[in-house]
Amino acid sequence: MVGSINAPTTGDKTLAEYIFGASKASDSSAPPTAPIGGVLKINGNEVKTGSTNVIDTSGAGAPPAAGNNPPPPPVNNPPTGTNPASPVEPPVMTALPSPPAPDATLTPDTQNMAGGPQPAAYGWAPAVSDNATNLLQLINWVDNALVDLLVNGHRDITEGQWKGKYPPTIQNVVGSMGAQSIVHRHTSTDSLSHYKKPVVQPCKYKFPKSNIEEFVKTSLTIVLLEIGLLLDTIGLVVSTDIWMVGPLASTIGSKARMAGLINMMQNHIPAAAPREVAMPANLVYSYIMTNYVEANSCPDKLPFTTYPALPVVRGPVENKRLKSVTVTYDDSKKAGLKMAYLGPWGKTYYEAVTPDANKPGSGTVNVPADLSGHVWGVLVSGEVQNANDLHTVTVAGPEMIWVSEP
Predict the structure, then answer these.
(1) Among positive and negative, which fits the CA dihedral 217, 222, 223, 227?
(2) Would you say domain 108-292 falls under CATH 1.20.1260.10?
(3) Rounded Cα–Cα distance for residues 205 and 203 (Å)
(4) What pLDDT digit, counting tens, does each position of 358-386 carry?
């Protein structure tokens, strides 16, 4: 398909030129009302666009002479409702009334929205290690936050403050993400209950939701934090609690698809990096506790540490890549500060902070040139060999940074 969205009215790239080129193309294998790129089906139902994406090439004739460009022809699309093939918007999923308790039984509505229930069998071992228990409780704790955000956010976009901001398809996707997060949470809560370990109850949250863009950004942040935590957990328990690998790894794919969709909602490509970022458990806990949890509101205490938030301001962009950032910190700890960049799994990058002589407690840091997509920055006082030891040198952070443009 050849097309032009904002074609100039003069020159050699006008809409008329594109239409002439399109008239020479072979027929598409996709139906005329399929979304650009192919056929989209949800639960077996084909989702169509409001009007055809096939350009009208009737009467294209010869290409217009240069400098003699006629106005673009009118698009001849029949009004929706008059064409027998007109699409029908999918029904909007009914929002769940409230986030369910972590150990509540899955309801049929939640299972339908999620596309299925939790696994019938987890392959539990006879016992679970203390380290695995701590990590399962942290995953349970993170899922509590994500379930609260997505379930309440879905209600906001279907019947609340953001009603009408998104089409039914996107509304249903957000509903599915919330329901799937409830199902994912059962991996940890079912396992903790099986081993007679405490299930972690929700805190009170202070999510930034003054507008829908903040909701979208917060959703992506927590989804990426959980992906990082799942990767980190699998690496830590594989030698002691190998039964956890299957249940946890099988949720990463779903979470990654969530992240890809939200990336596109932010006008980013769905997967800007070849691998996901693994996040040490302490840093995941610290970010959510520092940024999203009301003080003293958690009924359960977990054995993890919090660090000060790390304010980050994006610097110049060259060739669609972020070159540097400005960070703010406690000036009494400025000596030898570095930024540890956690990028796609496999390497931690370190860049020195250059203090601002005119602004104490502020400095600039270069961004490594071979990072893409979302990375995490942690302000540290030194380097460590293993990212799981970053908590021993952390000064502030982490903070999520988008380093490459779409």
Answers:
(1) positive
(2) yes
(3) 6
(4) 999 999 999 999 888 889 999 999 999 88
